[in-house]
Amino acid sequence: MESHNPDGETGDKCDINGDCSPISNKDTVSFNHTKNIDDISTPSELKFDEDFEFEDPDVTEKRNELERCLKNPDLINLEQWQNFAKSKAGLISDEYRRQIWPLLVGVTEDEMTDPPSLDDLSKHSEYHQVVMDVNRSLKRFPPGIPYEQRVALQDQLTVLILRVIMKYPHLKYYQGYHDVAITLLLVCGERASFPLLCRLSYGPGAPLAPFMQATLQPTQHLLNYVFPVIRRADDRLADCLDKAGVGTMFALPWYLTWFGHSLNRYADVVRLYDYFLCAPPLFPVYVTAALVLHRAPDVLQCDCDMAMMHCLLSRLPDDLPFEDILVTAKKLYEENDPTDLEAEVNALEKREEEQRKLDQERMKRRQAGRVAPRGGGWLGALPAALRRPAGRRAALALTAALFAIYVYYRPELFRNREDSPDL
């Protein structure tokens, strides 16, 4: 079984040319310099809920209603649970989510079985890759958790992922899957999270199924819906993004992990999961569009440069108003049904394919017409701009960024063969 890799490296920093960790939404000017060239390898460190003395009266009333319903859950239909999950503040706390998330996807008590031991699963071809991803996910655990409990959670997470891909061997594990799995595990526990993750991974309308195919082409196709949605809402913003050539790479970890990889606040992550668990499979793409629209002022002030724009968009501020963003995303979905966007998405992909062919032909002509000078060694064969130190540094940065993207699409070429004996 092969893996998809949304991470260009294994560390916690994304600093090809500097630190691109999440920042506050205050200073746009500081984004516009080359040290902020970003990749998508930074797992955000979660900040877990704190107790607040004040609670919105509407949320308090909703909390009381949830508690009444949970005393007699058999009397509540699916639509009522969905309304709770989608409306303001979502399901409010993990105490309620633990009981309601399985109901949102139709999990029954009979499906909540005890897991096997980790030793029973250690022979699977993806075992070592899953363990590496789980070991990189320490920032997704509650702070101050005792060592023994942390180790137990890591083992539970590894078992959870391996159980799913063993049950559905045609599905391809991708790095980022563990971000979804750990959120389900932290909220629902190991017995309920397995059938829940199975529902999300396989079956009609399973939202994670497109990510678990042999290639990322199905995922990329679905993510391309974001640009027609943005253009219909804000033509000027769409022109800016198109001119910069930023593409959709900045949003790939958002989509693959339902934002679990990229957000700092645990409360934001589980709030989005409340909604996504009962929304159409493509709804996270509409949330992506709504988020970019929300940040339009920053985007329009940013240098019209692919690297700078990618860095700006991929660094999510901590103070995003997700309740407002969800309302906007719902409106965008109602006004722009995915079936109505198919022609625009197909036209976009056709233009991109034509541009790739033009670029390839242009590169072939340049290579065919290039004649190395007689003297000057290897440095003399470089263009004048690249013989200068600044030009060589820029070329090195670009090469590193392209290499990270290549590793992302073809991770199996860089994996230890001993880790993947079946490949």
TrEMBL record:
Residues 22-36 have a biased composition (Polar residues). SUPFAM superfamilies: Ypt/Rab-GAP domain of gyp1p (SSF47923). GO terms for cellular component: endoplasmic reticulum membrane. It comes from the Eukaryota. Residues 1-16, 352-362 have a biased composition (Basic and acidic residues). The keyword Aminoacyl-tRNA synthetase does not apply. Residues 91-280 form the Rab-GAP TBC domain. The keyword Aminoacyl-tRNA synthetase does not apply. It holds the Pfam family RabGAP-TBC. Residues 1-36, 352-371 are annotated as: Disordered. One of its GO terms (biological process) is endoplasmic reticulum to Golgi vesicle-mediated transport. Keywords: GTPase activation. InterPro entries: Rab-GAP-TBC_dom, Rab-GAP_TBC_sf, TBC20/Gyp8-like. GO terms for molecular function: GTPase activator activity. PANTHER family: RE60063P, TBC1 DOMAIN FAMILY MEMBER 20/GTPASE. This is TBC1 domain family member 20. It comes from Bicyclus anynana (Squinting bush brown butterfly).
